[in-house]
Design goal:
The chain is an alpha+beta fold. Helices cover 17% and strands 34% of the residues. The longest helix has 27 residues, at 17-43. It is rod-shaped, with a radius of gyration of 27 Å.
Amino acid sequence: MWTPPRFAVGHGSVGSVGAERRLRTWSTAVRSIVVVTCLVAVGATPAIASAQARNLTVIVRTYPDEPRANETVHAFVNISGCPPGDVTAELYYVPAVGFDGTDGEVPATMINRAAAVTTLLYRTKAVISAEHAAAGWYGIRALCGTFRPPREPMTNTWFEVR
């Protein structure tokens, strides 16, 4: 009496080698689709509003490279470490500063802000412009998730307009 082949791979299956190979291929494809779907679903979930989970790195490059007073200055900001979602980059101005960029006496003034969105790779790019920039020191403050640093430029984001 003839019985149809069983295709349970790895359990003493009876059937052609081609059928077993096709079943293994489909099984691998389905597993891959499930894994990719789970990874996308986990990455697409909104950021948890509890705390900043990663270190925040802010890199600033200006155009022109050596800004002069009364020119339009563009600050290209690259932020990494913010959770996926909305990010705000703010440009602050301090007219008189000490050697380290802040002397604590002159408050920083926000000049402009730019909204951006963090990708699933935790990277953000923003461009902030200051038209007719005055001579002095400028710096960037990044706001993401529930991370709210003091209202002054963050460390290592300073640049000078002469």
